[in-house]
């Protein structure tokens, strides 16, 4: 009996076991006080888990990540976890810097934007998307083109149940999803081409207008009419960068932008969540007027932003072909209907799926459940 007790004491007193016991005690303490426990699966998840423990509900510290974690991959050969902020997708937890992406790396070379469709659209639906692209081309120098084998980065247009989403700018990840469900209220009200227009301008490189750094000169956010849920509040944060010489591309605030939220976006009680300041402060640029939250047409400010972002990238012939800005832009739905003369178009349709050893076929309709109703309020 005495010999057995002595052998146990010797084992417990060995240096190796003392170290193991100490590590175990540290782990218990760490979990009990709520410190982050990092997963060893990959560096992205380590960053995500660490950040989530630091976030406090309602916290406004600009140094902390503001996009709540929403993880899923797109089922392509370049799958990667990413983050959702309303209808915008991001690869990293970086802040939204400007009215539009400032780094040239986010722009499409020469203003040329290759695209292809995923299976799941009718010919009529593909035509509506295609002619909406042509509508943008009418007034800007960007060009949407069918993807070729030499195009490494391209828009991958998918009919994803309940979704109307896009990355912001060219994220250079191969197949870059733009999710457009023509039967969802998120995408179909008041008209499908209007929401396609909105998402394509995200893909060109622009954020939401109401999040501009100078927005406090033009609007006020009525937080008392918003939910306290961080999922809602983060859609009303303003962009934090102040490099105004470049961030707005020389274009003043635009109430009528197709990228602006509506007056009652996200309201919990039917009251306005965004109100105009009238008059605007002395000395600030006069804003473009228009209906906040409209999804029917381009505005002068939208077109000027795209032109200015790509003016040094587009070929000269594309820059001169877009012509003058009209006194009033046409309704995009009417314009699209007029363009369709019944001609057959051989659209590119591809199934860009995982071709690696990982055979987890991903279905977007199964991801991020519960946001279908929420998203429809932010229009």
Automatic annotation (TrEMBL):
E.C. number(s) listed in UniProt: 3.4.24.-
Feature: compositional bias, Polar residues: 267-276
Alphabetized PROSITE patterns for the sequence: ASTACIN
Active site residues according to the UniProt entry: 199
Occurrences of domain Peptidase M12A (ranges): 97-315
Annotated TM spans: 18-38
Binding site for Zn(2+): 198, 202, 208
Chain positions covered by the region annotation Disordered: 267-290, 346-379
Pfam families registered for this protein in UniProt: Astacin
Key word Hydrolase present: yes
UniProt-recorded name of the protein: Metalloendopeptidase
Alphabetic keyword roster: Hydrolase, Membrane, Metal-binding, Metalloprotease, Protease, Transmembrane, Transmembrane helix, Zinc
Feature: compositional bias, Acidic residues: 352-363
Gene Ontology biological process terms from the UniProt entry: proteolysis
Example of a GO MF term: zinc ion binding
Binding note for cofactor: Binds 1 zinc ion per subunit.
Names of the cofactor(s): Zn(2+)
